[in-house]
Here is the input.
Amino acid sequence: MAEALTTATKLLVVREIQEDEAGATLCFQQGAHGRLAVGDPNYGSHLQLARRSQERRHPVGVGFGEAHAVTDLIRADNDVPKELWDEDADRALVLFEGHDGVFRVKTEHPEYARIRALIAEALQQKARVWFIAHKPDLVLLDVLKAGGSGAMSAR
Here is the structure.
């Protein structure tokens, strides 16, 4: 399960929500869009989280399935990285100032280099980042710079 989330979940900011009888289409600032189906058991909580993202202009973690279907919406956290180090050849470890636990960035993540570089830069600047993590193992799925719109990513 963690592997599927690692490759499919991105931090995005909801720009617009278009509701109809079958569900809601989410349009993101980054240009993508996704569809929430009204029959999904998490429809209500996902729609509420999407509205909060739109209102506050904060990112949420979005998992996509086939045909732009939104399979998951995850609340994003933000914090300042406190430490970053390589545990071994397979992962780097991250401590945040206000979060308990040791977060992991796996080298097999398709955006490992970008995520690690962004965390290293934020650590050096004592800057806040947005992040989503798979729980309970605290594997980081995506990270973005905080500030401005909260959605600018280092690429």
Q: What stands out?
A: The CA atoms of residues 92 and 99 lie 17 Å apart.
